[in-house]
Every structure is written in structure tokens, then in C-alpha cells.
Amino acid sequence: MSKPQDMIRLENVTFAYPGGEPVLKDVSFCIPEGESRVIMGQSGSGKSTILKLLLGLYKPDSGDVCIDDEHVSDFTEKQLSDVRKKMGMVFQDGALFDSLTVGENVGFYLIEHSDMTIEQVEEKVREMLGFVRLEESIMDRMPEELSGGMQRRVAIARALLATAPKIMLYDEPTTGLDPESSTQVLHLMDQLTRERNIATIVVTHQFLDALAIADKFILIDKGSVAFDGSLPDLQSSSDKRVLTFLEPFRASLKLMERRQFV
Amino acid sequence: MATHKLGPMKNFFYQTDQLIRFSGRVTKALFSRPFYLTETLEQMYLGGVGSLWLVALTGILAGQAIAINFANELGDFGAKNYLGRIMIMAIVRELGPTLTGIMVAARVASGITAEIGSMKSSNQIDALRAYSIDPLQKLAVPRLVALLIMVPVLTIICDVVGLFGGYIIAVLLAHISGSLYWAPVVEHLNFGNITMGLVKPIVFAFIIAFVSLWKGFTAEGGAKGVGAATNQSVVITSISILLANFVITQVIFKLIKGYF
User: Fold this and answer.
1) Of A188, B117, B170, B236, which cross-links B226 as Cys (Cβ 3.0–4.6 Å)?
2) Angstrom distance (rounded) from CA B242 to CA B198
3) Predicted ipTM beyond 0.90
4) Residue B87 phi/psi, 5° resolution?
5) Residue B2 touches chain A, beta carbons under 8 Å
6) Distance between first and last Cα of chain B
7) What is the strand order of the sheet A36-40 is part of?
8) Is B8 contained in some domain?
9) Residue A94: which of A171, A10, A30 has the closest Cα?
10) Which member of A18, A97, A113 has the closest CB to residue B132?
């Protein structure tokens, strides 16, 4: 069986915001198609910056960002536009456009970039809302009228309808959600990764949610990769940075192991 | 850039440099495609029609106050007939454009900075870029174009209402006939006064748009940061309008003095 192709590859990426200290230092990892990685770390460790580098919203100071075998670090906005068609991004808190209705949010990309009629876009929006298990009746509602969980699912629907993504990027997808909404969002993310063979990166500091969706884990500590590997390797790691990060979750992990959840 | 590390003077020059660069990028976007007509019309309605009552009220009250002052002073010299001439100078050249600029700055600039700033802090600007939409094209250009159209229109309305306010005072308090008030107004509606009265609002529109958009796009630090940026936006815009008013008056007098 041939090894799956790497969809995402970061090689020795270093990045600093203008005038500041480096947020990321010599970061390298790769993700094959159909696999998911959860990037974990403390707040301000540079997790979300990695997603924005992948989208081309920032350019690395050094190193290389490779998306589906294309070296995108020096791409122009126009070239990036083509690369972004392969990626769906779900921002923290959904980042739905608050001046648009739910329907307009979900169909945003098609309205802006396709020649489809409004009726055709609406049909696609209905299909996509059904896929993320939301009722059509919310199409005319404004984002602030929805619960946090519904907003995240609308954001996923927007990302899926925008492109036919080979890569999905999620920034804190379950933060602030109640357990039921979290489970629904995690289910949907897992379904997308498995059924559509999508390479997935999830940035989160909700470690227990990460267990539900991750094939492997990356731990970022002070801008550097402290760990990149599977859950058993993570649990058996003797790296001080890993031990410090896992400390608050030890009790939950032991309980889950005992009950054979992991 | 960590601007808190800079001294006040260096910070001032750094911020000015950033504002000029940002203005250049917005101006470049103004001449690029696509042009978002629906958003532009929406902004014209929100900024223009929404400011109408405020500008009209300001215009009529200011016009009446000036007319009372001048009517009293001119009366001492038996020169009440000059009220219309003085009113057109005061209103069309100075107060109409400046008051409109300040009112729009207070109402619209604060709204633009708050809206764009909150879009930035909730990642909506990044979301636009992720969907291959240029935020300057989608958000900045419609607001700039709307202001370039609506500030001159509002200024003309403020001028007309202000002159009408002067007319009410002229007739009711100064006891000047309507024709004696309006004749010099029409006579002095010349090239010089019209140029002065229209160049100023166009420059003010650029100032309001560039400063408010720049403050919105660079707002940081969540709700508190957006609040501070909104406050700064109104202060910088208002001071810049007053400064620009002085400079434009000087320049236009030098260039077309013979046309007044």
C-alpha cells in the first residue's frame, strides 16, 4: 500500500509579528491526506498563527509552507486565491459575517465568486445546512440569533460550500460550547475527515475534545514543536514540556483509560 | 509594531507614515476591480441619509446664530443690507463645510472604526481574505466612495439650510426684505465661493474615510481596543478637518483670489 501524499508540510518555519519577538521558531511537521492533527498548547503559544500561515494570511520570515505540493510562502494574493480553494477554514467563534443572514453567510463564496443565480445558491445552501444538521428555516436568521454550537456548524457549512476542501482548518472549534453542541461539532469534523478523506488540523486547548478527533498530536510550546506523535507516545513521553502540559489532564486520562474510552 | 517602545515624536511620525501608506493602498483599491455597488449604495444611505437630520439641524441653528450676530453688528453701521453677502461667505466658505465635516466625523467615522474594528477582532476580516475577498475592496472602497459623494451633498444641504436660517432672522428680527437678503446671496454665489465650498468637503471626505478605516483595520485588544480606536478616530478626524480647513482656505485664496 502506497504512503498517502502529504497535503500540508511546514519546514523550519519561523515567524514574528512586525516589531515583535518570534512567535514560531523552526516549526516543522507534515500531514498526509485523510489524517487529522490536533495542535495543542498554552494561549499565546502560536497555534492560531500556524493556521493563518497555512492560509497565506501571513508569510513566514524563514522556512517553507507547502500545500498539496505547492510552495506557497512566496505566492501572490492571486496565486494564494487558487490554493485557498483547497482549504476550508473555521475561525474561532465562527467569524460569521454579522451583517449577513445565515443563508448569505453559507452561500458567501458562491455569491461572490460564481455565476450561479440566487435560487441555485439557495438550493446549495439548503443542502449544506442539511449536511451539518441544521434546519433550513434558519437561513433568514442573523448569526447573533443562533447558539454558539449552531454558529460553529454554520461556519463549517460556509467553509464546505466555499470550496471542495482537501484540507480543513479549525481554530478552537469547541471552545465555549456546551457538551452536547461540542459533541455535535466533533462528530461533524470526524465525519468530514473520514468520509471525504480531508486532511484536518484542529487548533485547541480542549485536550479531551482533541482525543475524540485526533490521529496524532502536535504540542507547541513557546513557539517550538515540543511533541509530534500519537496518543500512546504522548502519554509515555518524558519531555518536561509534555509532562507540564499533560499534568492538568492526568486524572481524566487515567479515568478514561480505566473505562477503556481511549 | 510595538509602538509603545517608541517615544511620542517617533510614534507620531510612525503612525503618520502608516496612515499615509494605508491611504495609498485604499486609493489604489479605488481604481481596481471589482467595485461593490450594493455596499456603496448601502453606505451612502447609512452615512448620508442617516446624517441628514443632524446636518440640517446644525446648519439652521448655526445660520440663525450667525445672522443674529451679524445683523446686530451691521445694524450699528446702518449696513444690514450686507447681511446676505456676509452670510454666504460665512456659510458657504467656512461653516457649511466645516460643520458638516465635524458632524459626519462624529457620526460616521466613529461608526466605521467601530464596525471594522469589531470585524477585525472577531476574525471576519481574515475570513474575507480566506475566501479570496480583498477587505480593502469590499469594506474600504465602498465607504470612501460613499463619503466622497455624500459629504459634498450634505455640505450643500447644510449651506442651503444655513442660508435659509439666516433669511428667517433677516426677515423676522433684522426686518430686511427677502429680496434684499437673497440678491447678494445669489450675486456672490461665484466661482471662488463655490470652489471653496466644494473642495473642502471632498478633502474632508478623504480625511474621514482614511482615518476611520485605518483606525478600524489596525484596532487591537478586543472591545477595549476597538473603543479606544473609535475615540481616537473621532479626535484625529476632527482635528485634521480643522487643520485642513485652514490650509485649503489659504491655498485657494492664493490660487484664485480674483474669482471671489
Assistant:
1) B117
2) 16
3) no
4) -65, -40
5) yes
6) 48
7) A87-90, A167-171, A199-203, A36-40, A216-221, A224-229
8) no
9) A171
10) A113
Position B11 in a domain = no
Distance of CA A243 to the CA centre of its chain: 25
B126 touches chain A (CB under 8 A): yes
The total domain count for chain B is 1
More confident residue, B2 or B170: B170
Element (H, E) at A171: strand A167-171
Phi-psi region of A17 (alpha: psi -120 to 50; beta: other; left: phi over 0): beta
Question: Minimal Cα distance from A96: which residue of B?
Answer: B124
What percent of chain B shows pLDDT beyond 90? 78
Domain of residue B212: give its range.
Answer: 39-259
**CA-to-CA distance for A48 and A9, rounded, in angstroms?**
16
C-alpha cell at position A41: 498548547
Q: Take residue B166 and report the three cell numbers written for it.
A: 439666516
**Residue of A242, A251, A189, A164 whose CA lies nearest to A37:** A189
Say if domain A6-229 classifies as CATH 3.40.50.300. Answer: yes
* In a domain? residue B20: no
Helix (H, G, I), strand (E, B) or coil at B5: helix
Nearest CA in chain A to B4: A19
| Of residues A20, A95, A112, nearest to B127 (C-beta) | A95
The pLDDT tens digits along chain A (262 residues) read: 566 678 899 999 999 988 888 999 999 999 998 888 999 988 888 888 999 999 999 999 999 999 998 999 889 888 898 888 889 899 988 899 999 999 999 999 999 888 899 999 999 999 999 988 899 999 999 999 999 889 999 999 999 887 778 899 999 888 888 888 888 888 888 888 888 888 899 998 888 888 888 889 999 998 999 999 998 898 888 999 989 888 887 777 776 666 655 4
Please report residues of B whose CB lies closer than 8 A to that of A81: 132
Given a contact cutoff of 8 angstroms between Cβ atoms, the answer to whether A219 and A41 are in contact is: yes
Q: A93 and B122 in contact (C-beta within 8 Å)?
A: yes
Kindly give the pairing relationship between strand A22-32 and strand A6-16: antiparallel
Nearest residue in chain A measured CA to CA from B128: A97
Instruction: Confirm if A218 and A39 have CB atoms less than 8 A apart.
Output: yes
Cell of B75: 445694524
Q: Is residue B18, in this structure, part of any structural domain at all? A: no
Compare all CA atoms of chain A with the CA of B2 and give the residue at the minimum distance. A19
A contacts of B5 (beta carbons < 8 Å): 19
Q: Do the Cβ atoms of B129 and A113 come within 8 Å?
A: no
Whether B33 has its CB under 8 Å from any CB of chain A: the answer is no
DSSP bridge pairs for A38: A202, A217
> Out of B119, B124, B132, whose CB is closest to A81?
B132
Specify the amino acid at residue A11: E
